[in-house]
Amino acid sequence: MASTMIDEAVSRARSAFPAWSNTTVRHRTTIARRFGDLVLANRDRILDAIQTDTRKARVNALDEILDVVGLCAYYARKSPSILRSRRRAGAIPILTKAIERHVPIGVVGVITPWNYPFTLPASDVIPALIAGNTVVMLPDAATPASADVILDLLAQAGVPDGVVNLVHGGGRVHGPALIGQADFIMFTGSTATGALVATQCAERLIGFSGELGGKNPLVVLDDADVQRAAAGAVRASFSNSGQLCVSTERAYVHTDVFDEFIAAFVAHTEAMSLGDGTDWEIDMGPLISEAQAERVMSHIDDAVAKGATVLTGGRRRPDIAPTFIEPTILAGVTDDMILGRNETFGPVISVQRVASNDEALQRANDSEYGLNTSVWSRRRGTDFANRVRSGTVTINDGFSASFASHDAPMGGMKRSGIGRRHGSQGILKYTDSQTVAQQRLLGIAPLPGQTNEQFATLMTRAIGWLAKLR
Q1: Positions of CATH 3.40.605.10 in the chain
Q2: Cα 463 to chain center, whole Å?
Q3: Exposed end of the chain (fewer CB within 10 Å): N or C?
Q4: Cα–Cα nearest to 345, from 119, 163, 189
């Protein structure tokens, strides 16, 4: 049954590809812009769907809408320039004309997780469509409502039948079949699963882009605005209940500002409004499921059992919701604890004192992951960022400034991913580059009556001359 559903979806996508890929980029960007307008017009409907799927706070659900609208506007404006054919230097000036084209790949499979069920599918589908591809969407089984809204709004925006196809059931059920038939896979999820997906793509020699796991550091340097850093750390750590690939799970704070930072961070955390529902003033909602809540609590319990200190939080709150866990700050976390190096993906952060900014850098880079780094500093942020090994570095903010900069690429280094969202890379990955070269007048071969040796002498001189010009 699983294979049959994918078979049918891929078949529809392949049938729709020739007509869709032959439409103009301008036509496709018009549809993308119309989709962004519909997202704004249907704000409350989308918020309800996201909260039905995830139970996240409504203000966190709003982030998904804002991101999609901004991304649609960006690609609608920039895609014609990014995707246009370009003249390239030919083999022989004047005689050789070379053009680089960007050709759609075919059927793109988009596999997304449950934590951001609206923005992740939509922000992957839109550039794939603008590039001329057709799509099979495979959202997580836990979040069907958000994907249904995406499909409906795309149809209202003018996407023809068969161009975007939705298969419910999730990657565990349908992923292998989709990877076995699609021409490109865009995957968001854990590093372990991403490695399996990449291996399956490699076996078929198809393209793969993956935003994977993270154990993101937050660094407070000795010249930071401490009060601002403490307030920012709350957003960086507990937005979306910590169920966010770019949120922070470990903090390194310079000893000169450590005590002031801790006091302010704990105070801001304890001032958060906790709840479950549609009230706009709720700062943090429950976790998505009992399984996720058990995972997060197991990390906290393990750390405490091995000597970590809970500075605030650390408890389940069934009085708020069955899967609610308080925003938690831990001190004394070591590498032998589960959450020392492993991604927790919940409202938990460890805080450690460091003796110098250089030690903070060393500790921040000491991870197999490299997705996002948050650094707080009045004067040294840029220099610090230039030495950090992560795909994005956000100075004096947690993650929003980098993630929302749609003109700049977003993705991971090391085991946090391959490929990029956003920017020119975020749409060009959905294309194959094609070179069309036209030779005029004379071929690149011996002239009539010319010996091979004479040709070799001529070309040796010519290539030396051209090398000096280029």
Answers
A1: 2-212+420-432
A2: 44
A3: C
A4: 189
Q: What residues form DSSP beta bridges with 310?
A: 330
Chain mean position to CA 386: 21
With vertex at residue 28, the alpha carbon angle to CA 131 and CA 45, rounded to the nearest 5 degrees, is 105
3-state SS class at 288: coil
Q: How far is Cα 342 from Cα 296, in angstroms, rounded to an integer? A: 11
Class of domain 2-212+420-432: alpha beta
Q: Does the annotation mark 359 as catalytic?
A: no
Among 217, 237, 235, which Cα is nearest to 354's? Answer: 217
- Alpha helices, DSSP H only, in 191-350? 191-204, 226-238, 255-270, 290-305, 338-341
Distance CA 407, CA 30 (A): 19
Two tokens, residue 410? 């977003």
- Please list the residue range(s) of the chain that carry CATH number 3.40.309.10: 216-408
Query: Each residue's pLDDT tens digit in the chain (470 positions)?
Result: 568 999 999 999 999 999 999 999 999 999 999 999 999 999 999 999 999 999 999 999 999 999 999 999 999 999 999 999 999 999 888 899 999 999 999 999 999 999 999 999 999 999 999 999 999 999 999 999 999 999 999 999 999 999 999 999 999 999 999 999 999 999 999 999 999 999 999 999 999 999 999 999 999 999 999 999 999 999 999 999 999 999 999 999 999 999 999 999 999 999 999 999 999 999 999 999 999 999 999 999 999 999 999 999 999 999 999 999 999 999 999 999 999 999 999 999 999 999 999 999 999 999 999 999 999 999 999 999 999 999 999 999 999 999 999 999 999 999 999 999 999 999 999 999 999 999 998 888 999 999 999 999 999 998 898 888 76
| CATH number for the domain formed by residue range(s) 216-408 | 3.40.309.10
Q: How many CB atoms lie within 10 A of CB 259?
A: 12
Give me the catalytic one of 64, 211, 326, 343.
Answer: 211
Name the nearest CA neighbour of 214 among 186, 247, 242, 252.
247
Residues in the chain: 470
Q: What is the DSSP letter of 160?
A: P
pTM value is 0.95
Cβ pair 384, 357 in contact under 8 A? yes
The reply to whether 211 belongs to the active site is yes
